[in-house]
Records
---
Amino acid sequence: MAQKKILVTGGQGFIGSNLIRRLMKNHPDWFIMNLDKLTYAGNPQNLKDIDKSPHYIFVEGDVGIKQDVDSLINIEGPDCVIHMAAESHVDRSICGYSDEFIRTNIVGTYNVLNACMSAGIKKIIYVSTDEVYGSQDSGEFVKEDANLNPSSIYSASKASGDLLAMAFYKTFKLPVVITRSSNNFGPYQYPEKFIPLMITNILEDKKVPIYGDGENVRDWLYVDDNCAAIEMLVDKGVPGEIYNIAANNELTNLEVVDIIRDVLDINEDVIEFVKDRPGHDFRYAMDTSKIKLLGWNPKYKANKLRQAFKETVNWYLDNEKWWREIRSGEYKKYYNKQYNTEAPSQRSMLTNEDNSKFMFKKKSFSDSKKIDETEEEKKVEEEISEEKPEDTDETEEISEEDTEKEETDEDEEDDDVEEEDEEDQEEDDEVEV
Ligand SMILES: NC(=O)c1ccc[n+]([C@@H]2O[C@H](COP(=O)([O-])OP(=O)(O)OC[C@H]3O[C@@H](n4cnc5c(N)ncnc54)[C@H](O)[C@@H]3O)[C@@H](O)[C@H]2O)c1
């Protein structure tokens, strides 16, 4: 495959880090850029093994801030943008953090689409979810042209992104491809989500909280299968088309617990039923014949599904430090110490100083590719300095807001950590399925 420059947004999270690792392995001549805000879900550890590669750069930035997105996409002009930065935890979207879902998942998606349009990007993949279709009755499988019927703030914010993406395609012919995948599982998934929460609770001798009667159905997709589909769509995805991605691994939540218990050889006393999530969708199920026509097929299905669960459990067994630091709140302290900087939640925009760091990183990419873009860099620098008076006001305005917000965020996070430390009851109520 030809050399490509790919921008992944949200690459420091669960699916993003698995995707970047896969792209780097399969396409050593591609250059991968990763724009991520490093929220609580974005962990620098997730891509530590490739961090120093000359074919990779990490740019800390916020898709919710137009300037962060514009500067990167306009300067670098990637061949393809894979937009997956998002607030992704349904429970957080319905218990006090919904503003961030609107800001990142809707405004952030708009910013990315808009920047791609200005820069004339030739392929944009917007990573969405099966949750936009809402709950399905048993035996029903939705196709890509089904109506959107989201139930939570999370799925409504993702569906808004889908609608914006389609509007950019219809109105401006922006070459956007949308993926809607089912629930993923695998290595590096933040332990607030159902499967890693279950595994790590069991490993810490804690009960596994199950919403309602545990009969809700999800179609489980091993993360590498999803990444393989996205990788294929970089070349084969047809602009303006939507692709469902799932493996036909329908399981009730209780069935998932049974598999994990079996892999870990634990008895069923471990289950604790908790009050159901408000608006909890009963079942998601999609027809995936469209993406299969392009040549994608999930590897981890039917009798290989158990192997994927086993590999996931083994990953959590082998990477205890990774999840224990997250669960104990040590991750935040680690971050400050390791990177000798503020905690991620305290930064939410690129300042002018950050911009120059970014230019430096860009230079190192250009050097590695032996491309002389000095003139272009100069032009962009001039443009940035021309815009300065307006930007300065904006920056000050945002900075004040941010300062207030940082304090609130920090307080909230501290509270979170204290609460987690005190008892796990609260955390137990936050089960993503
Ligand atoms: N996990 C699933 O089962 C699943 C299923 C279907 C679709 N999806 C979609 O896939 C994408 C990735 O999901 P995930 O599970 O890896 O999520 P995640 O929560 O693990 O990671 C999200 C990443 O986005 C980053 N981010 C958040 N806000 C940002 C912002 N404003 N600017 C820049 N970066 C920001 C975070 O730092 C993090 O690295 C999301 O768009 C999600 O909606 C996930």
---
Amino acid sequence: MYRDCDRNDLTGKSRSFLKTYPEYQKLFPSFANVPQAQLLKNGNFLAQSYTIAAGLNVIIQSLGSQELLAQEMNHLGTTHFSRGAQPHMFEVQACYCDIS
Ligand code: HEM
């Protein structure tokens, strides 16, 4: 999945997400203050977009094992909770990734 993603499509969806919810950008220290119009040219933003895709790939690869899936989801929940990301933010992001 990660390898086959269309670059512009993937990063474009991340930008659309932050354009709709600009307050979420503040959660990302490495590009918190980058103007929206420059996000697609910002290396830290692009890296975060691919990090999300890689994270989704890990989850998909874990689907065959309930134990592994639970472990990965717990890990994602823990790391995100500590950074201020809340469950409702994931729900709206799913719409932008066409994974709902
Ligand atoms: C299914 C969707 C998502 C996946 C797979 C995902 C995946 C990841 C991964 C793999 C990391 C790096 C983890 C680490 O450093 O330990 C990360 C970091 C982060 N994620 Fe997500 N994420 C998702 C959705 C979200 C959402 C919706 C938000 C909030 C709007 C968010 C906010 C953050 C923040 C703030 C960081 C830390 C960035 C930093 O410190 O530079 N993520 N995410």
